[in-house]
Design a protein that fits this description.
Layout: E1 13-17, H1 24-32, E2 37-38, H2 45-53, H3 61-70, H4 82-91, H5 98-108, E3 120-124, H6 132-138, E4 143-148, H7 151-160, H8 162-165, H9 171-189, E5 196-200, H10 201-206, H11 208-219, H12 241-246, H13 257-260, H14 262-265, H15 268-282, H16 295-323, H17 326-339
Parallel strand pairs: 1-3, 1-4, 2-3, 4-5
Length: about 350
Amino acid sequence: MNLLRNDLSDLPVFFIVGRGRCGSTLLRSCFDAHPNVTIPPESRFVQYLYYRYHQIKKWTPELALRAISDINKSFEPLLLDHRRVFELVKKYHNNLSFPAVCKIIYLSASTAAGDKGIHCIGDKNPRYTFYIRQLKNIFPDARFIHLVRDYRANALAVTRAAKNIGETKSVPIALSRWKYYNRTIDKIKRSCPHRFYTLRYEDLVKEPDNTLRKLCEFVGVKFSAAMLNYDTRLKNYYHDPAFSKLHQSLKTPFDKAKISEWQEKLSRHDIKVCEILAGNYGQRFGYQTTRKVTFAMKALYRIIYAPLIRTGKIRFMLKNIFYNCPVFMRLFYNFIQRKK
């Protein structure tokens, strides 16, 4: 791999965060096609290794290799080129640290683009929405792309794929989670707005050239027209049945029909539910409501759906709590490793 940096600490990192089914795989595919960006398939190896190794101050090549081998026991382990792992550990043996080991893993992961001269590392994982504070500590200069999609379109996408992504088909629950994800990011964003770029899925689809140019500037790489032709590389991923099933829409690059699909596919009742429960917050991102409802109707719907809304958020509220409790997470991941 033709690295253009003498020190791994000079290699910038960015993360794509936000609610699932908002277009993060499309955006990852665009960056994956960039000749100078590596952005491996979705994984949580940073989180897995963090609770076991981040406190270590003195790193040796042997310790780095042991940590890297541990990701085989993590969730969604990456496929690594072990020859490249050894080369990079040897090359940077005098500058090893937890962030450096993570970057070696990123640089050794198999992607559709293969060997490239890397100027930037990317990672996308909706689950990292609840892990941003730790990522900021690990990578002090990291940037975050906050990807958001119309709440009605997201509710449709989530309920349609519910069985395959471990969600329910409840529109109110989907809405509560959409709001919780985005509010979690908004809260963190206030302390360091310069490190976040809020991107609407609709803008990416309608104006991909202009949008991707702005994103490249934000993460620190020159724009490449290859990003607009990401679909030519997708065949490398379709050997994975789960990927093929969930991301069929990627075969139609920047499909504008997806933007307004919710208007036809959601029932009038579901649209009303969406706009009553999430319409006010959705306007923050420029999503305007289409139904006029009375104050009494809003109050009634919010009372009726309040239990479902709370139920929908519990799982992710617990994640937020647990991710910020290093002792618990360390015990949890040690238990997982022993089981595997």
